# Entry
Amino acid sequence: MSDANPLLRFDYLVDQRAAIVAAVLEHLELTVATVALGLLLAALLAGVALRWRWLRPTISAGTAALYTIPSVALFALLVPSTGLSRSTALIPLVAYTLVVLVSAILDGFDQVPRPVEEAAEALGLTPRRRVLRVRIPLALPVIISGLRVATVTTVGLVTLAAIVGQGGLGRLILDGLRRAFWTPLTVGAVLSIVLALLLDAAFVLLERRLAPWAVRRTARP
Amino acid sequence: MSDASTPAVRLVDVRKTFPGAEGAAVERLSLDVPRGSVVALIGPSGCGKTTSLRMINRLIEPSAGRVEVEGRDTSTVDPIALRLGIGYVIQAVGLFPHRSIADNIAVVPRALGWDRARIASRVAELAELVGLEQDQLQRFPDELSGGQQQRVGVARALAADPPLLLMDEPFGAVDPVVRGRLQQELLALQARLHKTIVLVTHDLDEALLVADRVALLDRGGRLAQYAEPDRLLQEPAEPFVTEFLGADRSLRRLALREVGELSLRDGPVVTRGTDRATARAVLAREGGDWLGITDGVRFLGWVPAAGLAGEGPVPEDDLEAPAALVGPDDTLRAAMDRIMTARTAVAVVVEDGRFRGVVTLELIRRALAEPHTPSPQTPPSPEPSPEGSR
Amino acid sequence: MSGVRLAQAALPRDITLREWLLDGASWTGEGGILPSLVDTLTLFGAVMLVATLLAVPTAAVLAHLGRARLIGAWLVNVGRAVPTFALAALLVPISLRAGYGFEPWPIFTALTLMALPPMYLGTYTAVSGVDRAAVDAARAVGLRGRAVLRQVELPLALSIILTGVRVSAVQVIATEPIRAFLGGDGLGRYVRDGLGQRNTTLIVGGAALVAVLAGLVALALAALQRLLVPRGVRRLQAVGASRDVPA
# Structure
């Protein structure tokens, strides 16, 4: 038995390499689309929360509540209205990134030191310049670490999007489970784990590049 | 638009109330800041000194009244343009942590659209002016000490050579030793640049040291007295001022006056070779137990009264070295310190090695009792700035 | 060996949500809602118990000793990055080949690993963030290391520790339904069956059940936390909790 159905059969890997590559690309595509849309929406929500302060608790609580909805439930709930389409996967995926991204943006802006903002204003920088040159750059490290968490989480959730017929590597996993044929399952699971870890590491590097002052600061004793 | 007699900053009946706050933060404040002078706003917390400062560059808008900078009503000037023309230094420095020191200094010139070469040479010039090393310019603020950061803050405020500088507790965040050094540097800088400076502080000594005039505000932003430091100490206008200045007000005055301002006298001092009888007569007239000997130029030392007995010229073989030496630039407080610790009860004033006279406690006491004379310094007109910022 | 069951006994396709939820047979008996709920809560309880026992004491002791800061942070990051569904799936054939079946080891292991990072991080941050002055004072009056941990550090850190546990619990209860797609059952089975049978009633009803349970667990834990933490400490550390523990 174990010979016929080992955890990994190399001939399958060779035969199916095109399909595997396609699955990885689809997985990445869905992840990138999710995080990009999530960032856009989160920026809007954070902008609203910063502009109208009294809305902030509502927005924070709302995005947090979305996050507590079980992923299986959120994917499934949309099936009756959007069918087994890409939107059915995208909507919940984007919704899950919001809690991390909105709070990262707000935290990022919060931790811009008050004296720095005050100095920027007092020296005569325009409101636009203050946002673009001072607040956003200083919020960037926190926002990037939010993006990191959101991206990595999304890679994991995209695997689950297979239950509504989407999401690259997850389909290999479900396919393997359905057929009790372990090779696609192993390939799908291992690759999605590797993908998550690689993206995680990539963000660490990105953070170092984009916020050298913060890295130098933490590097000091 | 303005001539030399127009004050650099003028507040006219300025009032500020904050929504929800009881009473006014600043109550009908009127104040003229003469061009080229340093004015300190001081008072207990809640006196509205920072609020007043921030109304000058419209970080806070007055609820009523008028603020003029260089003769122009600030409410008619675009706040961004106004602020670009006014230097600003705050207690927490507020350097941009994500920018190099050079970029921090260049913030305002860049906002004014200067070209790169001009910015680079200005940054180098300012670094030199405030005492920063060239190799520090490419570092990040976090890599500098508190004192150095504050120097960068001053350089940033001076970058576009604004005639007016606002400073909000500029040295409040550094330790006393560094603070003292930065205060001296500010004085030296001011002696070169002749800016108009409005400075908020809660440190009375700092106000008395760096300011030409002190505005003492009471709670609720009422101006209790606006005067030169010495006059403030000598003639407090009301009980609140007396109380604020504290019981050691006279001691503080000592710190403001210099030995060179005294009409120095020769005191119990004779030139070498004077005969002992004459010397005894001088000592009897001047009082004290010690007689000083000079060679006509330098002060040689002290002879105890007992050493003057007998005949012949005053002895020179066993002179007591002068323990209390002061220069004309020393404060009366320093002179008094030295007098108190010297056996001779007299401090010798020496300038460039030459004997100038002696200071006694009596002389100091009399100087403090004299009615206040306004300091002779008239505020110098601002240097024509080669890089006028507007 | 057969594949994973992805559909159970079919319901009539035209059954309404109301009919399904009001029918007593939906709730009890083989594959009913109540046994499924018990199933889910049992797994949830076991995961939380084991994960808490693993993460909290380890983190507390390491933080008390000031050890393993870097390796801990690294493990937490890796642990958070690994997709739970993929990990659980990967464990399924391994469990089967070892003779342990579809359930519960793969899902149990994956959920436990998912629960560890927030709790570990929360506890570590909380204990090492306890005011040094309080710790020094405790040492100064002669408390030994373990007593310092038990009498000073843990009580002061309790609020943030519980926040970490709560975050883990919410994640676990929200992720548990994936087991229905990994050869198990639990409350997620109705969503799976609904998807398999194209039965909207089951999909929506199943999703609602799962969502309501997650919401109730989240609320209950929040209430429990308020109850457990002395008010003084709660106020003291409310600020720190939101920032240091990932949501």
Q: What stands out?
A: The CA atoms of residues 39 and 186 of chain C lie 5 Å apart. The two ends of chain C are 41 Å apart (CA to CA). Residues 17-244 of chain C form a domain with the MetI-like fold fold (CATH 1.10.3720.10).
